[in-house]
């Protein structure tokens, strides 16, 4: 079966695809609003440390597991630990990707809708953008339509295959994403008063640090790097044996982190320059920024570019999420790629409908005060992703063995990027850090 699997045609194809998996709503929608609510620069600093100490080692581990086995997450754990329950870790990754994509597609649909509206009269001074956003998500059929269109595009890419679909698409979208970012950053940094936003973003205030800051940083690293959801195991399974996993993983982490940091430079200087509150929470992209664009010279153009950027980034991540579940049924159950993409994409679309209706018909259904979409997001980011990462670290450190992971990642190269520090990190630092953060997050949610 492994001989029949497609492989990335080039090294850059894998790096762009894996970076595209990581670069998505987590960078452009989630990172700025978490940074704004968690104190700005001090959160950014903790996030960078978390990405280096936890994100990079785990990313190497997942890619190495995939490349070694040439299988989907479930099949990979079965191959490395046959006749044991460890395959359930892979199953958790597949399930997590399924859940995340269901509500991720809804948010991506909002971005596509705002992209279209940006071509019209969306940006007008004095408009109440809170009412505009609430009015949009409170509808039923329009958000469902945009959710459907986004999933349709995602299914089309996956159905075309690893090379003709995923690799060809990301080679177009990733450069486009960078160009859009440059345009937005130049406009934001040249606004009068932008310096206050730069200071908020770059000058840490350590009095703002709380336990929640660390929890948010680790959750952000997992979400944005696509850790714990099987995406990197799946993408790693299409890698050729002569690829240097540790170096490629470094490129992926660097590109993802770079885009997250650029998102801050595109958003915070403009927010401060025009007198808005950076503590806008999840509504920063859809309620605060449209008001910023309405006050900004050439705001309609830059509003269009921002939401187009958001849509493009969402698509590159959604592709990887759907590929996880599609690869599972292809490998384990023998489905054709096209059938798997259509059927599973359809099921994910249906699962996303409650997230749409949670703002309208089912608005009274809540969990700990959260609506349906936020509930799915809480379970994914507070339980499923960190649990998947925790179990993967334990598996790599104590079952498969960190020495085998290092051998696979380094793959006989002269540059030994993974060495003694990796063993300490994967066996001790990562499991302890994730466990503490998970327990803290659960305590804060239910008793805080």
From TrEMBL:
Signal peptide segment: none
GO terms for cellular component: membrane
SUPFAM superfamilies on file: SNF-like
Major localisation: membrane
InterPro entries in the record: Na/ntran_symport, SNS_sf, YocR/YhdH-like
Transmembrane segments: 12-29, 41-59, 86-106, 144-163, 175-202, 214-239, 251-276, 301-330, 342-363, 383-400, 420-443
Compartments, as annotated in UniProt: Membrane
Lipid bilayer topology: Multi-pass membrane protein
Alphabetized UniProt keyword annotations: Membrane, Transmembrane, Transmembrane helix, Transport
Protein name: Sodium:neurotransmitter symporter
Organism of this sequence: Dethiobacter alkaliphilus AHT 1
